[in-house]
UniProtKB/TrEMBL annotation:
The lineage of its organism: Eukaryota, Metazoa, Chordata, Craniata, Vertebrata. This is Dilute domain-containing protein. It comes from Periophthalmus magnuspinnatus. Pfam families: DIL (PF01843). Residues 132-374 form the Dilute domain. GO terms for molecular function: GTPase binding.
Length: 422
């Protein structure tokens, strides 16, 4: 059914090749696009600020897990690291290409045994210092981010098992990394402007590229669904390589698709050139490609596909009939993910670009407004979606068996032979 829908969209758009070119964007539209770009930049800055808070939280959590554990007899099977070797240990385990070749979770296992040995000495200042060094800022490289996320989760679980304190399982962690690794701002123009269908009649004028080139062109290329899906594949591969739990991957892509949807949806509501029947067909096809990619990797269960619904319904509205009272009723019944204000805004912006498009009359908009008054609106009375919304990440608790140094297979090329069994 999904393939049939895509083929239907392709066939329909190919019939529009003779359509007149779209008008050049007005200064008002260019100004609105620039304002949206600035709003996206502010959202990224907010994520950066939140991340610093979350790093501090993780440091305190790890430290409390270790220092608040009940005093017991010395535990055998730990690893001892001299203070002068701590920097070398962290570099080999968490930084550089060598770290990426290690079995998933090996770094966390080694660090846990070293951390627990330090704690047994009663040297709390050194324990805190070592914890801080573990979670200090690292490379924003995508593969290294996945490596850190995997080992951070496992280390948290190992420490929580040996703590008398009930550690909170829900924290907001690494949202910034998901933001940075997939380039979600670049995804917004790709969803709206990528000419994925041959013969698309709704092509945008080339002069528009200069309106906000820094957020619309990646590596000198026009925004495309191919580049967007390539970025998503890279993130998925990096997380899979580290054997991250499926629940965590679902949450990551849920957050990402929401940010992509919110950015694209807001841009659509600020640009009249996007509100036409033909452009709606192209956007729907682009979103279908994203949906198909998410489902093929079993990422839809975490809400990644469902969060695209506002954008899907917005383009459905662009494609629906807009003449009769029956059309108005169908529109109100279909667009349940859109607020009344959003529906009216899209109808107001609707701009015919060919003979196939229908002009929206003021009487039709008033009819829709009358029907919306009688609708029990479950959506907040807002125009734009919140691009700053960050969902809390629930880390699955994965109990591990008692860990012993003899169980670890540490490769020689890791060069940490300075560790001693304790």
């Amino acid at each position: 059914a999904r393939k049939e829908e895509l083929e239907t969209l392709r066939a329909t758009l190919q019939k529009l090749q003779s359509q007149k070119p779209e008008p050049q964007p007005s200064p008002e539209i260019i100004k609105e696009v620039e304002e949206q770009r600035q709003a996206n930049e502010k959202a990224v800055q907010e994520i950066e600020r939140l991340t610093q808070v979350h790093f501090s939280y993780l440091q305190n959590t790890i430290f409390s897990c270790v220092t608040e554990s009940p005093k017991s007899a010395p535990v055998a099977g730990l690893l001892e690291c001299r203070k002068k070797d701590e920097g070398k240990l962290l570099k080999n385990l968490l930084h550089g290409d060598l770290a990426l070749t290690l079995p998933p979770g090996l770094s966390a296992s080694v660090l846990f045994l070293c951390l627990r040995q330090i704690d047994q000495t009663g040297d709390q200042p050194r324990t805190r210092s070592f914890c801080t060094a573990i979670v200090s800022k690292h490379s924003n490289d995508l593969d290294m981010t996945a490596l850190w996320l995997k080992n951070g989760c496992l280390l948290h679980d190992l420490l929580a098992q040996h703590s008398s304190k009930q550690v909170r399982r829900t924290v907001i962690l690494s949202d910034r990394h998901w933001y940075e690794c997939t380039g979600h701002i670049a995804a917004m123009p790709a969803l709206l402007e990528s000419e994925s269908l041959a013969g698309s009649a709704g092509k945008l004028p080339l002069s528009r590229k200069g309106a906000s080139s820094d957020s619309r062109v990646v590596g000198g290329e026009a925004p495309s669904m191919d580049s967007l899906l390539r970025e998503l594949r890279a993130l998925y591969t990096a997380m899979s390589r580290q054997a991250l739990p499926p629940e965590l991957m679902e949450q990551a892509f849920h957050q990402l698709t929401y940010l992509m949807c919110a950015s694209a949806f807001n841009s659509l509501l600020l640009r009249k050139d996007m509100c036409s029947w033909s452009r709606g067909m192209q956007i729907r096809y682009n979103v279908s490609l994203l949906e198909e990619w998410l489902r093929s990797r079993e990422l839809s269960a975490g809400g990644a596909v469902a969060t695209l619904e506002p954008l899907i319904q917005a383009v459905q509205l662009l494609q629906m009939g807009k003449k009769t009272e029956g059309d108005a009723k169908s529109m109100v019944q279909t667009c349940t993910a859109l607020s009344s204000q959003q529906i009216v805004k899209i109808l107001t912006l609707y701009t015919p670009h060919s003979d196939l498009d229908e002009r929206v009359t003021l009487n039709f908009i008033r009819t829709v407004q009358g029907l919306l008054k009688n609708r029990s609106d479950s959506q907040a009375p807002q125009i734009l979606m919140d691009v700053r919304q960050v969902f809390p990440v629930t880390f699955p608790c994965l109990p591990s068996p008692n860990l012993h140094a003899d169980q670890l297979k540490i490769p020689d090329n890791l060069k940490i032979s300075f560790l001693r069994r304790a």
